[in-house]
Amino acid sequence: MKYQYISVEGNIGVGKTTFVNMLSQHLDCKLVLEQFEDNPFLKNFYEHPDRYALSLEMFFMAERFQQLSESISPELFSPLVISDYFFMKSKFFAMNNLSDEELILFNRFADIALNNLVVPELLVYLHSSVHRLQENISHRSRSYEKDISKDYLLNIQNIYFDFFKMDRSFPILILDVENVDFTKDQKAFDKMKELFMKTYTPGVHRFKI
After folding, report:
1. Is the pTM here over 0.85, yes or no?
2. Integer Cα distance of 87 and 142 in angstroms
3. pLDDT truncated to tens, each residue of the chain (209 aa)?
4. Which of 36, 57, 127, 201 has a CA that sits 20 to 30 A from residue 144's CA?
């Protein structure tokens, strides 16, 4: 592959971690997987979002920065590094979860971290409708996710797509997985894998699976 560092993103419940784990069975790669359940504020945030939002997002940002800075070096790559998150998601979720005053503080730290991280050469975004996301979330039965609202998921989706409208110095590959279950449909997964392994010019590239 041309790329040495790829980030896979998507809204809550779309299957990004499942996808990268499936890919790793076919590619010679190193996986960097977000340890989101290690965040001690996660369950409390879903119960009392106003009280725990800043603590939640600061912890996530610090963990992501440490993990990526330790795992990905601009001088020494493994043949391919795939992460199941993009560091910018810290800013995206903070935009959705924090007050204006909290966001100012958060972004001061986030911008410092961003300046010290390697940028992925390709961003892959898995897309499904909010309705499909809610079905997936329900099926995986994580107790702290049971009250995630349609509006919350829609807001997160809109923040990602606002970002995609901006000029990017790297390619963004959007794979619409709304009508497939790539964990069970081998043809769908094979198509996703084929698209994943191609080379793209900077900008947004969209495909329906």
Report:
1. yes
2. 24
3. 789 899 999 999 999 999 999 999 999 888 999 988 889 998 899 889 999 999 999 999 999 999 999 888 766 555 789 999 999 999 999 999 999 999 999 999 999 999 999 899 999 999 999 999 999 998 887 777 777 899 999 999 999 999 999 877 899 999 999 999 999 999 999 999 999 999 999 999 999 99
4. 127
As to burial, measured by CB atoms within 10 angstroms (0-12 exposed, 13-18 middle, 19+ buried), residue 30 is: middle
| Identity of the residue numbered 168 | R
77 token code pair: 């790559």
Distance of alpha carbon 56 from alpha carbon 54, whole angstroms: 5
Cβ contact 134:153 at 8 Å: yes
Task: Report whether 183 contacts 15 (CB < 8 A).
Answer: yes
Tokens of 90: 């810290």
Residue whose token pair is 């900077």:
202
3-state SS assignment for residue 160: helix
Count CB neighbours of 64 within 10 A.
24
Backbone angles phi and psi of 165, in degrees to 5: -75, -20
What is the signed CA dihedral for 67, 69, 74, 78, rounded to 10 degrees? -20
